[in-house]
């Protein structure tokens, strides 16, 4: 199984790093799903939630407001000013 190597950083810390099966980001022109073997892409992020699906099926969700995502050869780099953790799905109303 192919995997993505993900690095998710803010201006002052690493938010998440590791392998993932899928990443979803809030591009300025709509939600963008990233899967292994995707064509190289560079996109500007808007307001929304970054979702990283790790290889065990867990999902890490963080609210972001702007930034960028770069995809090349199954390497995903997400850079934002700040990323706030989301409450787990069961706790949301």
UniProtKB/TrEMBL annotation:
The keyword Transport applies. Its main location: membrane. It comes from the Bacteria. It is found in: Cell membrane. GO terms for molecular function: proton-transporting ATP synthase activity, rotational mechanism. The keyword ATP-binding does not apply. Signal peptide: none annotated. Belongs to the ATPase epsilon chain family. NCBIfam families: PRK13442.1. This is F0F1 ATP synthase subunit epsilon. The lineage of its organism: Bacteria, Bacillati, Actinomycetota, Actinomycetes, Micrococcales.
């Amino acid at each position: 199984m192919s995997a993505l190597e993900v690095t998710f950083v803010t201006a002052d810390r690493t938010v998440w790093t590791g392998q993932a099966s899928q990443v979803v980001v809030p591009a300025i022109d709509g939600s963008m799903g990233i899967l292994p073997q995707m064509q190289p892409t560079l996109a500007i992020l808007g307001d929304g939630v970054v979702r990283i699906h790790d290889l065990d099926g867990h999902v890490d969700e963080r609210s972001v407001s702007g930034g960028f995502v770069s995809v090349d050869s199954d390497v995903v780099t997400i850079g934002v000013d700040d990323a706030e953790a989301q409450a787990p799905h069961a706790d949301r109303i």
